[in-house]
Amino acid sequence: MQLILPTAILFCLSLATAASVPAAANLSKRQAIPRKIDIGTYNSLWVAWTNGVDPCKKKNYIPGPTGGVLQDDQNPCNIRFSVPDTDFQYSMQGCGGDSLWIMRNGLDNVGECFWAPGNNACVAGESFKGQWQCVLNDGNM
């Protein structure tokens, strides 16, 4: 069998690539996947942002029950909040139960929320501490 040099190089590269990719890679829940809402803290305040968007640049603070911003020692459940570049209000529901879900405009259960801790570092200041990630199941943000 005679191989032409460019064909032989491509053949060797494809073998090396196939050997370096694990057969069953475990995907992290904190990947930049659209239609997810991240809920976490920044400077001891609760914030929400769209997954995959830099929270240092685009975030919304979750309002507290008496005005102002919800402090990180308070529970973010059952409190309406918005996410940048959306026209809806969301709230995380089910705290204290077996599962968490996210509601849109107080009417529609539109997805599930999962514990997904992680940090997003900003150039200056404190890192965002992501706590929860909610996956929207209807394709709308």
Proportion of beta-strand residues = 25-35%
Describe the global form.
globular
State the order of secondary-structure elements, H for helix, E for strand: HEEEEEEEE
Number of helices: 1
**Helix content bin:** 10-25%
Mean pLDDT: 76
Structural class: mainly beta
Multimer state: single chain
Termini separation: 56 Å
Order of strands, main sheet, comes to: 3-2-1-8-7-6-5-4
Low-confidence stretches: 5-31
Descriptive tags:
11% helix; 35% strand; single chain; mainly beta; 141 residues; eight-stranded antiparallel sheet; 8 strands
General description of the model:
The longest helix is centred in the N-terminal third of the chain and has 16 residues, at 5-20. Helices cover 11% and strands 35% of the residues. It is mostly beta strands and 141 residues long. A hairpin with a 3-residue loop joins strand 6 (100-104) and strand 7. It has one helix at residues 5-20, and strands at residues 36-42, 45-50, 60-61, 81-82, 89-93, 100-104, 108-120, 128-136. It has an 8-stranded antiparallel beta sheet with strand order 3-2-1-8-7-6-5-4, with no helix packed on it. The protein has one domain (36-136). It is built from 1 helix and 8 strands; from the N terminus they run H-E-E-E-E-E-E-E-E. The protein is globular and about 40 Å long.
